[in-house]
Amino acid sequence: MDDDFLLDTEEAKILFHGYAEGMPIIDYHCHIDPREIYEDRSYDNIASLWLGGDHYKWRLMRQMGYPERLITGDAEPREKFRAWCETLSQAIGSPLYHWSHLELRRYFGCELPINAKNADAIYERCGEVLAGGSLSARKIIKSSGVKVIGTTDDPCDSLEYHRLLREDRSFDFCRVIPTFRPDQLLLIGSGSFPEYIGRLGKSEGREIRGLEDLKSVLARRMELFNAMGCRSSDQSAGIFPCTRIGEKRADEVLVKALAGREITEEERLGFMTEIMLFLGGEYARLGWVMQLHFGVVRNTNSRMFSLVGKDAGFDRIDSSAPVETLAAFLDELDRRGCLPKTVVYSLDPTMNTALAVLVRCFAGEGTKGLVQHGAAWWFNDNQSGIREHLRVLGEQGVLGTFIGMLTDSRCLLSYTRHEYFRRILCSFIGRLAADGEVYRDEEQLGEIVKNISYENAKSFFGL
User: Fold this and answer.
1) Closest Cα partner for 17 from 6, 33, 31, 29?
2) Alpha carbon 294 to chain centroid distance?
3) In sequence order, what are the beta bridge partners of 233?
4) Domains of the chain with CATH codes
5) Residues forming a β-bridge with 206
6) Which of the residues 111, 170, 270, 334 could staple to 245 if both were Cys, CB 3.0 to 4.6 A apart?
7) H or E stretch including 370?
8) What mean pLDDT is predicted for residues 160-180?
9) 3-state SS, one letter per residue, for 133-163
10) How many CB atoms neighbour CB 2 within 10 A?
11) How do residues 205-262 score in pLDDT, each as one tens digit?
12) Cα maximum dimension of the chain
């Protein structure tokens, strides 16, 4: 893991060191808590920083057979860290093997291999660095060259910490902006839906009795988000339907659901469609980007869900998520003249080509890459997944318009994932040049690398 890690051609080395390596970072989608940034959180030990809330790591540790007390339980931090080091030493081929070693080197200056033998030495070394105060939340962000962070925020959120960060003159090296995440609106028919709609109404001091009330409250919430610098939404669902039932019937469905009455599957999908079309139109009006994540089945292990809750490592790929309804949904927004800039992410890698072709059906209108096939996500943000995603983007569209990588992470040290992506990107393009598949025009290829690394996202999100 030297300076030329993953750079397998001279062309790749030139592109990375000359063009990608020094570019700033726009982390346009992550799950960092803005409160941690405002309060400049510091960490007592590497275990709390690395293992707290990271379901990527938890999944691997469970495969080693470790008890839950060493994963999400009440074991001592050093004990958990030893278990993680033993796990990682066996997880060769995992992107976590690469990410963790990159984080250890970049932030702690430690080049020891992560394994059980070195666990205590690494723990102590990291502890010394953390105690020195050089790795608080703000210092990590500044030293990583991060210019923009897009957090993930519920429409009910007061955005208090976003406001405080905007007013903090000492925090002038990075913008922390909210991202509108209306997932709870799509859960109509669930037991929690009426309570959520009640909270949403209270956030604007208004009772939501029907569809017009809901739309009015949502519009006002979006104006607040916009005032706090929001540039995008993010929606995650199993599917994105296009079942048209009309506003009158959608209003009736909402009234039924708020009263706790059962609704049919058609009514559920129809309400979701009407709300999503309304939201899409508002996003276009505000100039926001609409991010759509789909193809995930949540909480597959019901026993473990009851024990440790959601986002704990028990989600999986849904291989049946249809592209057809997504295409119909995008087409309806386009037909209405209110298709916003859009990024579509699928968890199923077998859908890469279908999605790359689909998004090209909605190109033009003065925007480069108006509808994007988003970065290799979650189970795909590994070396082979990223390379395959780049290959498909290149073959089916214009690779140079791609908006690049994101962390999608809850850990501040995850900015090395941008480095990881950029190394793979330069390796991919460098190999094309080395093999004579593209002209070896360093300036031209370097510009593409810089754009994908930073400039395209800056332009696409209006930053």
Assistant:
1) 6
2) 12
3) 180, 290
4) 10-43+135-460 (3.20.20.140), 44-134 (1.10.2020.10)
5) none
6) 270
7) none
8) 98
9) CCCCHHHHHHHCCEEEEECCECCCCCCHHHH
10) 6
11) 999 999 999 999 999 999 999 999 999 999 998 788 999 999 999 999 999 999 999 9
12) 66
